[in-house]
Design a protein that fits this description.
Rossmann fold; 14% strand; Sigma 54-interacting transcriptional regulator; transcription; 20 helices; Helicase, Ruva Protein, domain 3; alpha/beta; Sigma_54_int_dom_ATP-bd_2; five-stranded parallel β-sheet; ATP-binding; 17 strands; globular; nucleotide-binding
Length: 476
Amino acid sequence: MTTTTGSDNALSGRLLLIDSDSGCARRTGESLAEALLVAPRVSFADSGHDAADMLRRMRFDIVIADLSSLADLAPRTEDAVGRLVRLAEGALVLALADSGKVSAALDAMRAGAHDYVAKPVSGAALAGRIGELAQRHGRPRCLGAETGPDAALADYAGFVGASSAMQFLYEQIGRVAASSAPVFITGESGTGKDVCAEALHEKGPRADKRFVAINCAAIPRDLMESELFGVVRGAFTGAHEDRRGAAELADGGTLFLDEVGEMDLSLQSKLLRFLQTGSISRVGETAIRKIDVRVICATNRNPMQMIADRQFREDLFYRLHVLPIHLPPLRQRPSDVMVLARHFLAGYAREEHKRFAGFSHDAAQQLTAADWPGNVRQLQNLIRRMVVMFDGGEITSAMLAAADIESRATAPAPVEAPRIDSRRAVLPMWRQEQRIIEDAIAAFGGNISMAAAALEISPSTIYRKRQGWAEMAATG
């Protein structure tokens, strides 16, 4: 057992790493320190008994335990972790285990561990997970005022965030970008579907070619075909010249169809033919033009519900739904809220030539606790509005309240008698169920099978429920 001490102001909490493999323990500590850009105060224990002795003598804010190293505390993993949790007296407890030992990880979480991390450990992912848990469980002291997710900030191709959900998204984009297969992006409004599409283009082999985006919900239906496939002069009134459409403009590059579910059914059949043949005809001509594009589409609606309502062709859906990517809503990654808020504050302050001194503690708590129905876009608009409204200084709760017009606009009208105590509105059952399932998926790094096992449901149930949530959110 050894102890190392870093700078006192780098990590205000104290961390205990338990691992019988001293080399592995040190690599984990170094990886975490590198991700945090600090030298945290870390104590090492090489057995469960050593860890128990240390926990009796001093207080720790974070305990990271390799499950195989706790066998001397109790024969059963659940009993060993339970004893450790009791000795830790409220510390955040993370269990480390080989990726194949899912049952042991579930036993650890049943015994009171806050999360499970698969080995080998990624420092950035571990730092993000600790920061997320600290925010979720009301322990911001674990990583100090200016460390944690901020220090492990991930700025990836237009995205900002270091939570485990975002780390998984970055990994997905990196894998999917290299392919030429169609991508189907889903997610609530304001989650960054357009940013995701551009990231896929920039990270892929077509990055030196054009990225052409077309919003299927913003173009009148009678003009949509010419916007997508082009038109020849004289094809209809107002067609004064030959014009290339979005597909032709994107030849060799990427075509992004945003809100693809809003496309007229008759045009959907032509889009399907284009995807099958790789050829188009401009409106008003018979000539066939071969086009080579990668198609990325996005929707904030539930495509399966649109198919059931005969608003979306099933054969088109399966032609497009080759590589699916789902963007998590902001409420499911609370550790990213302040990362984003500081990022937007710095940018808009420069733009408006003002000086702000960050966020007060109360303001930060208020932002982190919000539900953000408009997701990142809503947070971005709020910060920009506040920068314009105020001259500078520290952002306070009063300033937030003055700028938060969305909350005032959606707040219910005041009711006279009878007076009741002010309580947070009860969320619909499907919304609460969604939070539980998505939190479990994030806890297991995006692994749906492991999340399903932890929740004691089948993976197919998670897939089916995910398909239904987007439409429910869109319809309120």
